[in-house]
Structure formats: structure tokens, C-alpha cells
Amino acid sequence: MPNEIADEYDADSEIEFLATYDPSGFDRIGVTVDVALFRLERAPKATAQILLIKRGRPPYKGRWALPGGFVELSEDLDEAASRELWEETGIEVAPSRLRQIHTYGAPGRDPRMRIVSIVYGLVLTGTDSIDDLSAGDDAADAEMFSSEDLFGASPKVRLAFDHERVVSDSFAWLREQVPLDLP
User: Fold this and answer.
1) Among the four residues 18, 23, 63, 127, which has the most C-beta atoms within 10 Å?
2) 112-122 residue pLDDT tens
């Protein structure tokens, strides 16, 4: 006789519980997705660039950040990341190409409300093109930056939110994924 798994689930009691459940008893938390999209150059020296958008609206209007935004109620996280990338940069990628690389949720990381962000990574291959970058939605600009551009002796831009940490962690993820001697 095969092992039977005891199941004390009571569908009627579940329905009754959910009919009176009040989620307003909990603080609200927003969920966002960001995309760390990298382009690699192998010659003459191995370098990597990451795609950033210039924020066109507050908070942090005028500062640079990873493309991303709020997850809509009807979509999966991967779909949200793909949608946000397309809306803010014009780059269309299948959700299945994106890989979750880290989650950030420290209180105070966004001045609007408590935000939990899931960051996705994508390394472009030689067949991928991003020649037609076009800022859209709430992005005022979209541009590729090297690690040196962001973290060198004279950084070219200032990053929004906690994206200095997020972008730094994303470059660390890239170095683990790609067998190149990247700075």
C-alpha cells in the first residue's frame, strides 16, 4: 500500500476565511522590477557596458537608474521586467531570456513607499542589437555606461535610489557569468 499523505485542507473553511479577510491590516509594499542589461565588447580589450535610463519624473528626476518599474496586478514578474525594458528603452526581449539576479527590499530605498525590487540580468550576444535605443514612458534618456563611467575616479552620472549598490552588484553578477577578465 503506497504512503498516503494526510491532507487536512478544508476548502469550505478557506472560502469562509477569504470572504472576510482584510488585507488593509498590513502595511502596503510596492513590488518593482529592474533590468541590468549588459553589452560585451571582446576586442581589443574585454569591456562591459550596462544600460541605464535618465529618470524623467520624480523621485530623482534627472538621475540615472536601471530600466524598471512597478509590477502590474495581472502580470508575472518576468513579463513585467520585459515590459518595463521595452517601455523605457524600446528594447524588446522575451521574458524567458531574463534571469533573476537579486532582490532588494531595505526600508527607505525609495522615498514614495516601501519597495521590494527584483533585479533581472541579461547579457546581449553578438546577434542582439540595441542601435535603436529610444527613451520612453517615464525615461528621459537611455544610454550605455561602463563600470569606469559609473564608479571610476570621475563618475559621469549620479544614480537614483540605491542603484549605486544595485548596479555594482549587477556588475559582480556579470563577472560570475562571463569568463572574461572584466574590470
Assistant:
1) 63
2) 999 999 999 99
